[in-house]
């Protein structure tokens, strides 16, 4: 199974920094694809997002994922900046 | 530990409604908290004019989990009654962003649970704050 | 540490009035407490029907000291705004006996101060509680 | 200065137990008169009040007094049961 791209959904400040809400990022060559690969692909696509990306947590299917977690095919990875409720 | 209200809404918040929801003849102690928009914030210079709270779609469901988790942790006997709501959308200075109320037969539990509820909301509720000041600057809280 | 309200009154208590008194655009966090008459109490059997709170003449003055002492102790910078009132006279089940509200720029201080205020009132305010139950018994709290 | 009696004011549950709000208690022979003497005189006057008296604090001129404190002439000693506010 060779996934060539992963869909990423940026939230709030991450969306503002990326300048886009959702996009498909090229991760060809990564097998299996992990959240770490997705972060690096996002940074490649938006070089100025480094700080913001570093503070974002990753969510897929409602579950928070660490960088080494594998991203199943067809799953959208959501990038969430730090929460600021209350 | 009955959670009477645990929600995220795009409408003004009403503390009295939360107090009424948790009221119970057996519960003599009710602690409550109101978090309002301030006219200044360390993360932005000058004077705050307004802010926009946005939420992840899972916010309401997460709020329900937060309320029941905090209650299970601090109130294993399940005597406390809990009501908490966070507001999203555009808020001006003085507008209420979060309201929490907890009643219990004992003061200490009411205070502890209400306090922890608000702290857990801050930690875990997927909500973001986009602040604007009088100079037209804007900042996303947590990303400054 | 402005104490906006610190009193003992023979009239129904109004939480909103206390919240309004402590409100301030710089203070985003307001913790509050409401102590109401419960329909049961460890010191008396059966169901409480009503109780009478009586006060020593120094009660109001003592309440003012309590508020300023607690504030001085927990809020040396004097940023918190405080309002607290205890009711005397005849109260029925569900009636509010004490209301406290504390606003501050920070949640932790608001909660801590509000909590300690209520505890200090319990320790030091010269007020007595004469409870009555459905069987016509009566008991003076603290003397059972 | 030989004080023969001290005025005592009972509050709340103490008044209920004593069956009187204010009374003058004989303390002749005590010199100087202390709060302890006043408590004993109150117990002598109201033998069933022991428990209640033991829990009362003593106040004179707005100041709380320990048992060994001297009661100045003409000062009323107030006996206050435990507080039960909040």
Automatic annotation (TrEMBL), chains A, D:
Pfam family of this protein, just one? ThiS
The protein's name: MoaD/ThiS family protein
- List all membrane-crossing ranges: none
Q: Which organism is it from?
A: Dermacoccus barathri
UniProt superkingdom: Bacteria
- Which InterPro entries is this protein grouped with? Beta-grasp_dom_sf, Mopterin_synth/thiamin_S_b, ThiS/MoaD-like
Q: What is the lineage of its organism?
A: Bacteria, Bacillati, Actinomycetota, Actinomycetes, Micrococcales
UniProtKB/TrEMBL annotation, chains B, C:
Kindly give the SUPFAM superfamilies that the UniProt entry links to this protein: Molybdopterin synthase subunit MoaE (SSF54690)
Highest taxon in the source lineage? Bacteria
Residue stretches in coiled coil: none
Per its record, how is this protein called by name? Molybdenum cofactor biosynthesis protein MoaE
> What is the organism field in this record?
Dermacoccus profundi
